[in-house]
Amino acid sequence: MTLKDMEKVTSNKGVARNMSIKYKIAFITLLVALIPMVVLSSLMLFFYNRAIMQRADKQIEENIRIMSDRLSSVLQNGELCSNNLTIEFGNYYNDKSLKQVTRDSKVTSQLSQSLLIYNGISSIVFIDCYGRFFSSDPGFLNKSDEIINSDFVAALKDEGGKTLMMPVDDNPFDKEDKEVITMGKHVLNIVSGTHLGYLFINMDKDYLIESSQSEISYYFLFDTNSDIVIQSNIVDPIFTDEELMDSLLETGKKRISYNKESYLLAREEIDPYKWTVVGITNLNKFNVTGSDLWFILLTTGSFTAVLLLVSVWFSANFVTRPLKVLHDGAEEIAEGDMSVRFRFKTRDEIGRLGRIFNYMTQRNLELLQQVEDEADKKREYELALIQEQVKPHFLYNTLDIIIMLIEMNRSKEASRVTHKLASYYKNSLSGSDEIVSVEREIQIIRDYLDLQTMRYGDKFSYEIDVDEKAYNSQIPKMTLQPLVENAIYHGVKNKSSSGKILVRGRIITCAEAGIEQDGDNLIVELSVIDDGVGMAEDELAKLNALLSEEDAFDSDEKKALEEARITDHDKTKGGSHFGLYSVAKRIRLYFGKSYGAKIESAEGKGTTVKVYVPHGA
Prior knowledge:
transmembrane helix; Profilin-like; membrane; five-stranded antiparallel sheet; 19 helices; alpha+beta; two-component regulatory system; 18% strand; Heat Shock Protein 90; elongated
């Protein structure tokens, strides 16, 4: 039975089954999305409003408790301070051995120390039985007569040493920028019970409520006469209604309404002073109203339903089909067919994704070819390096020197040459590591130069000056030997007088070397410097241009260089500089195109070859 036959059999099994898939998706999606949305909206409104009320009630109760504890703590500190000062002052005035000046100094010092000990106290004033005035705040000294003759002092004369809360109104200790609450005490001698003076403890009103400021909550402190002692900064119009404000202590409600706004009340009494803290929170500012939330939910639900319908329609027609093409093509690429390409005319995400797939496929092809080419190049240059390492003429000449020294009965020198030769080949040929430390590379060069100075005698001298901080950096093995060999055979050897070769290494920045590179800004510069015959400007420019190219060796040039190296040892592109080309290319292969080598030379003055490798690689 064919696919068309099966469609005919099932065509009569119901309209719903035969409905287009995009309509099925749209209908089911809307049904599944809208029903939970309605239920969720209703539940959200109910639980949200209940949670907001509980949270608001809990928050204001907690704030009231904290504020009450704070006020109670400060008031207790004031009472404790007055009691301690009463004891201290009694000791001072009972000690007849104290001079008046000493006693006055001790009283003043005790007032200052009490400010540091008891939190919330802004100033302390003491008027002793002789009429002397002491204050921790120098600003009260100018109004000492006013304070001594105030109603506060008169109110304490008949009190028996209790600490009292002084009236809020007409407080002589108030300033223009600071209002205070004052506790007063008639100080009596604890031994004889005689009058010692009057003590006033002042507490800053702002300090008492500074931790309870809020844009939606306001706090009031009422004294025992139901008068407002402290109120926070008021910005709500409800507090302009004096009748409502007077009823805050009388009403037992936890919620009141004013101008269609709801307010939540909380109260806390401060024992033992019988003062009351009242907090008011504007619930309309604290909570999003139910009507607003309904509007938000309905708008969001309608808009979401439309978006769902439109998105399902477009996804079925414009997204699913191209995605299927991408899926099938990706499977073919995954199976190894790199010839697959996508040709989408659109420039949307799917079109861009198709072009990205095309780019990735092409790039993978290029990278595979590049890896293969670089592997071939790496093996080719490593083979060339080994050929450069085992120079038959160098080995033969060194063995001739050893034989000559033995025939001349200079066995110690022959032994020294033999050891140097063995050390050179041990360091240069032993081990399978392609990358070695700069320190080991320097040892290879040192052995090589020692052998060459034994061979050529006074023809040249050498010096090695490499920063020890560069020793642990990595470098391809036998990088410097071809450069030193070139310095000998094409530099100082052809010089009429004795020459010198300097191998120098230092750590520099990429900017100093002219290298553009992200990340670490430090590199290692290794230089082989000779004062030999140098080279002409055109030859120097040609060499540097060739070394700076990203791919200095194409297949034809490599073939030409190899033939030149074999047939003519002295040609510029032959054996004399093949080692230099090999060094530069190997550095690029291992560390990237930012690194490599360059030459500086002046005819008749010498040549400098510099190579650059990463620091600490």
